[in-house]
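Morning - zinc ion inputs below, output right after.
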Amino acid sequence: MTGLILMLALCADPFPYEKDERELSADIHEHELKAHVYRLAGSEFMGRSGDGGERAAVHIADAFRRLPLKPAFGDSYLQPIPWLLTTPRADGKKVVGRNVGAYLPGSDPALADEWIILAAHYDHLGVRFGKMHPGADDNASGVAMLLEVAEAMALAPEKPKRSVFFISFDLEEIGLQGSTHFVTNPPRPYAKLKAMLVADIIGRSMAGVMDEHLFVLGSETSPELTNLSKAVRPEAGLSVARLGHDLVGTRSDYGPFRDRKTPFLFFTTGVHKDYHRSTDLPDRINYAKLTKISRWIEAATRQVADATDTPKWDPAPLGPGLDEVAAVLELFNRSLAKPEVVPLTEDQRKRFEASRDRLKEIADRGTMTADDRVWLIRTAQWALLNVF
Ligand SMILES: [Zn+2]
């Protein structure tokens, strides 16, 4: 540390939520989640890219180290991601990023060599156009959940049967490089990985209109995960809606796992107007909602880790079917009802109305055809690209 930087560091205000951030408890509290989000989205990590990303990795590793967990990568909490091209990087660095992780060994001797993953990427966009991009929702919200669920599960007397790996990937924003490196260099035999759960953007509201919703995508990859995601009841005020992941394409770190036919669940509250902007700020997160979501994810993680019906890859041809139709219908209805929140051009409004009518028709009919699903995927992707 140079003298000038040291001086600046000493002059900077102390982090106001340090006590909440360091609190260790088997319960997941709103003030703990909030402390993590404010820390990760603060100027200390400069948008969690480059040197700031490296500092964030060390910070997350330190948080894992305080818990009764084991390092995920041999004797290390960090997994360096090498630069793979033969041409050297301009900055000469041979390590371009690092995944961070820890695990809780399974308590059942017959199942402990099987493992599941709960993940949330920590990297974000750094400084762009002279502005720090704090990425409070993308994905400090997910990392906050990851740290609190890891803490809750590590401290609870009841331990999961399978081993649970808590992984925070790097370089998600640059082509899923962290998760891609992980699947080719897994810390355990890949064939024993039974499911992958990942959260990305879980602190706000899809398009500003789905205030009480958590979306779960990917449950359609496995009948066991379908049953399980329906069985975990959310607490009052939270609504869990299932969507097929093909509605959104490859939007997070599940990509490399899905390509290896690993059953997965992807949790998100969806994109909003501050997505990938410098205005994705910690004071815009709905912490009460993030708390309910984190508790739901903890319960779901426990269920997957303990499941007697081991999740198996067997995708449903029509995705989540009518559950998905109901969720998209709700989104379209609310978007049409709130033009001040979701401004639509005349053409867009017409397409939304026609889509709503077809969704209603499918819901009333009570069955979905293959053609309906192809249409729904095309419509959802058009809306994501052009409106939301
Ligand atoms: Zn993200």
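Note: The two ends are 44 Å apart (CA to CA).

O.
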